[in-house]
């Protein structure tokens, strides 16, 4: 019952793969790489969101909560799924976090 999926990516590979599934759930792609954000504009159903603090999990979740409430995409109680990597395994997205909007 997620309202939004957020993919934090360096190169955009996970966002590209997710786009192939044509998810009915909106997907936001965040990156600290401008070229990756530009590339994600070409992926089906992926909304690149610049300015997100990708390297800090709590700040990223706060950023998405604030952005979502400001745009009307999220309200208190909505669930957001975050997909990112722990950098333990190179080029792998191996962390999934589900958070409720506060």
Compact description:
The chain is α/β, with parallel strands linked by helices. Helices cover 29% and strands 25% of the residues. The protein has a five-stranded mixed sheet with strand order 3-2-1-4-5, covered by helices on one side.
Give the topology, please:
Layout: E1 2-8, H1 13-20, E2 27-30, H2 34-40, E3 46-48, H3 57-71, E4 79-84, E5 95-100
Parallel strand pairs: 1-2, 1-4, 2-3
Antiparallel strand pairs: 4-5
Task: Describe it.
This protein has 102 residues and is α/β, with parallel strands linked by helices. It has helices at 13-20, 34-40, 57-71; strands at 2-8, 27-30, 46-48, 79-84, 95-100. Strands 3-2-1-4-5 form a 5-stranded mixed β-sheet, with helices on one face. Helix 2 (34-40) links the parallel strand 2 and strand 3 (46-48). The two termini are 16 Å apart. The mean pLDDT is 90.
Question: Top keywords for this entry?
Answer:
single chain; alpha/beta; five-stranded mixed β-sheet; 3 helices
Number of helices: 3
Q: Rounded to an integer, what's the Rg over CA atoms?
A: 13 Å
Residues in helix, % = 25-40%
Net shape: globular
> What's the count of strands?
5
What is the percentage of strand-forming residues? 25-35%
């Amino acid at each position: 019952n997620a309202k939004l999926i957020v993919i934090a990516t360096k190169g955009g590979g996970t966002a590209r793969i997710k786009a192939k599934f044509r998810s009915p759930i909106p997907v936001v792609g965040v990156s600290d790489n401008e070229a990756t954000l530009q590339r994600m504009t070409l992926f089906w159903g992926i909304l690149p969101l610049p300015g997100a603090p990708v390297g800090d999990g709590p700040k990223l979740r706060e950023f998405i909560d604030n952005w979502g409430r400001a745009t009307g995409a999220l309200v208190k109680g909505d669930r957001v799924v975050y997909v990112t990597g722990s950098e333990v395994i190179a080029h792998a997205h191996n962390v999934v976090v589900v958070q409720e909007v506060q």
